[in-house]
Each structure stands twice: as structure tokens, then as C-alpha cells.
Amino acid sequence: MANNCFSTPYKPESSTGLYLAQVLSHAEKHPEKLACVFQPRGPETAETLSYGELNKQVVTRAKLLVESGLSGQHVGLLFPTGIEFVVDFLACLAAGAYAVPMNLTKNAKQLERTLTILRDTGVKTILTTQETQVLLHAELRDIQALSGFRWLDERHAATQNRTLPSIQLDDTAFIQYTSGSTSAPKGVIVTHRNIIDNQLAIQKACDHQPGLIAGGWLPQFHDMGLIGHMLQPLFLGGTYVFMPPLNFIQRPLRWLQLIDQYRIHSSAAPNFGYEHCMKMIRDDKQIQQLDLSCWKVALNGSEPVKASTMHTFAERFACAGFEHGSFFPCYGMAETTLFVSGGPKSTGIRSLKLNRNALAQGKITTADNEPDALPLTIVNCGELSPHFACAIVDPITGSRCQDSTVGEIWLKGRSVAKGYLNQPDISQEVFAAKIAGEHDGQYLRTGDLGFVHGGCLFVTGRHKELMIVRGKNIYPYDLEQICNSYEHATGGNGASVFTVSDGDKTAIAAVVEIKKRSLRDQCHDVMNQDLKHALSSEAGITLDHLLLVPPGSLPKTTSGKVRRGECHRLLNLDQA
């Protein structure tokens, strides 16, 4: 980042309760303490930034943004994983610019998502690095959509000593785009109040202490990586330690080595991240060389959480000092800034075995003493944060559900965002819901189905994805878990189950990714029968259509979630 004489400490006119004022106050207390450690390619390549230098660079960049007339404007952030993103995101907060984090990619589908975000926000200026700008223009010179923007990189600096604006708690801080697993990505308007409230909620639930060391491989443009990995340790005067996501995908051992090397206390991943470790790390000697005893908060969220995954991971890495109690299943979303429920710390993996037939009718009945109940295990997503009020509501009638009944999860609290950018009608429907017959204010409709038991939240699936077949509620993720556990399946998020019209009836269909070797060597008819039998015996479901596909065939979001709606197309192409 460019340095100049404008390096006075950040002291906004209205700083009470502002996240950035809290972060940069650490520069006065301990300027030499490490704020960030970035490991792009291994231990020998580590880049660091102290709190004193962080303060200097953020103020310098913020004054450039003010001079460029970007206060109150949407500003695109298009960076490779790195410290530059940290500085420019915080600079946007200081300048009153509305940061729009985006995925830097050459993948055609992901690039289209980025272009959609640029159009939706009306961004005129993109912050990036000089190297990234050169590469983008070289690689994408034929894409006219990226022309016409003003690009600001580390070569640009303010020419005058600009005054930073007064920032209010209810001012927009940034725009976080949803993953778009069930619909087109939507821009969530997150305020400064939302940030500070959710940071406090995360700190309390995880029992994070001042000086926290946290981080990992999660993308910086994704809410879990941004709010949980990046902003939380900086909020507590700790250290944000991170690596590029691709390094993890290629060699997941690097994530665990990062945790060991820097004694990371808190690190998160979606469920597939833990599965990826077990799939790729097979050398017992490598595991025994690790010391994961420092990893006390292993958050698992962003996608449905599997108890079996966590139990197996804990057993596999116990010899490296990892403890069962470190697992921290949690629940949240961009619309609540990030965090909603989880913990308390050290409680580990908890779950309920439910009667599957009762659940199909929307009722909560345990199956502990019912051997013929086809039990379904639902993971406990932890205690609801006291920063939220939660109601379980019938999504059709809008009435509060009776106890022991599944309904839509509705939330209200200071972490709930303003709404969706440029979508007033949908924002009114989603962010201003009212419970029928009650007068206790507006709620956020999460779109997720679940229930509260013993003060803890249990999530059963997405309302939009719920399949109703012959009067029964069927949760696709439950069936996908069965498919993914098949010995010839790729596992992870390699299956999609959905309904299709089949004449005058509703049929159940599945698309399952199969290992390359199995597709080549195994009888496809036998694999079809195996999967259908597994679904019938374990879930009591008759599968009408099944398509076996090679690894990597299923369409997914940037965070690895299956786009079930697009999976219909694969089945249609096969039947055409």
C-alpha cells in the first residue's frame, strides 16, 4: 500500500460503538503487535502487518477514497486473498464508502456472478492491486463489461490531507451478497451497528478473549471468512492468520499446519472442509507431527452440519491433540450479518435422533426407544444468541407454531441487516414479517425450517427446498447424505435430490456424483440399485429417477453449496 504523510490515528467524529474505532484503538495500545499474518504459499512466504502499520495504511487509503468522492458510494473490492483486502475493506468503513467484496476469478460462471454484482450495485470504482488489474485486463480483454470502471490500486494516493467523515451506527457499512443456492444472489445491506452487534455475539458465544488468534482458509469475500475469520480477531486486538482457499483445496494439510504453526485458537469451515481433510490426509505420520491442542473452537457452519463428519474427524485427529469438545456447530447467514446460534464453548457435538415418519408430518418426536422408526439424526446448532429473539412460525399461515413442531425460523435483533439492495418488495416480505395475531415487531424470515429444543436451535432444511410427496414432508439434504455415504459416491456435496413432474404425479429424482474409477469399473445398473435400496431401507423413500454423473458435474455456489434448481437441467439433458 502507498504511504504518505497522512498517517494520523483514526479518530472519527462519531466513534462511539464503531467497529473500526475499536480495531484501530489497538494501534495506540500496542502498535507493534501483529494484526495480520498471510501465508500465500507456505511458512517461508509469510507476510505480516502490525497494528501500527494497519492504522497508517487504512487512514491513507481512506483519505484517497474521500478525495475520490467515494463516501456514500458503492465501491467494488476485487482482490486475490491477501492483506490488501483487509486494508481496503477497513478503509471503506473509515471513508463511509460502501464496500462490495467480490470473488476474483476466471471461472466463467463465477465471473458472471461478479458482473451481476457490479450491475446491481452500480459500482463505478473498483479497488484492486496493480498486478491484479494487469492480469485481469490481459485475461479478460474481450469482456467489455469490465471496461469503463475507475481502478484504484496501491499506486494511487491522496494529494491533500482530507478529513474523514463522521460515521453513524445505522449508516451502511458494506454489501454482502448471498451465495444464491436457491435463487439469484442478493445484496444484503449491512450497517455499522450490525457489524458491532454481531462481533459481540460471536465473542460471547465462542468465549473469545482479547488477543484472539483466529483464521484459516475461508474466502475473504464470503461472510464466514469476512465476519468470522477477519473481523473478529481484529476486533479483539488479536491476530488474523490466513491462507488462500486454493491452497486448502489442493492440500488441506496446510490448513492444519497453519493452525499448529501460529497456535490458532478459533478456525471455521463448512462441513465439506472437514470431510476434505479426512479424504485427502491419509498419512498417519503427517497427522502425528501436528499439534492441534491450541484449536479450542472449531466452528462448523455455512451448510448443513453432519454429526458423523465431526465424530470421524475428531477420532482421526485425536492423536494430534484435537478434542471432541472443540467442535462448535453453528448457524447463521448474511442477512443476520453472520452469527445466530452456537455453543456454548467446549460442549462439542450434540444431536437428536428423531422419528423420521413424525418429522415428515412436521412433528418432533425422538426415536431413542423406537427401533422401527427409521431414525434421523439432527445436529444441535447451539444456543440461540441473546442478541436475537427467535420465533418458530408456520410459513404458510404466519402463525406461531406449537411446541414440538417444525416451522420457519424467524429472527429479530440488532444484527439483522437493513434489507436487500434495490429489492424493496422482497425486502419488505423477508425483513419486515409479522407474526399473525401478535404485535411484537418485525422479524426476518430466514427461509430455513427448524425448531428450538432446550434453548438450542435445530435446523431441518430450507423451506424452498422442502419436498412434499404424497402428503409427506421430505428433506432433500437427508436423502443426499445417504447418497453421499455410498461407497462409490464422491461424497462431500456430491448429490442433489429434488422433485420432478412425472405425468400426473410428483416424482423424486437424484443426481449423484460417482468416483471416476467406479464409473469405469462398476456396473451402472448395480450402482443404481444399491442407491435406491439405501434410500428405501434407511429413509423409507422410493426413488423414481436416478442419474449417475462424473465428479464435478453438479452446479455449485462460490461456497460449495449445490444449486438444486439447476440440477433439474442435468436430468432433463440425460432424458432428452
UniProtKB/TrEMBL annotation:
InterPro entries: AMP-bd_C_sf (IPR045851), AMP-binding_CS (IPR020845), AMP-dep_synth/lig_dom (IPR000873), ANL_N_sf (IPR042099), FAAL/FAAC (IPR040097). One of its GO terms (biological process) is fatty acid biosynthetic process. It comes from the Bacteria. PROSITE patterns: AMP_BINDING (PS00455). Signal peptide: none annotated. Pfam families: AMP-binding (PF00501). Keywords: Ligase. One of its GO terms (cellular component) is plasma membrane. Residues 26-421 form the AMP-dependent synthetase/ligase domain. CDD domains: FAAL. GO terms for molecular function: adenylyltransferase activity; ligase activity. Belongs to the ATP-dependent AMP-binding enzyme family. This is Polyketide synthase.
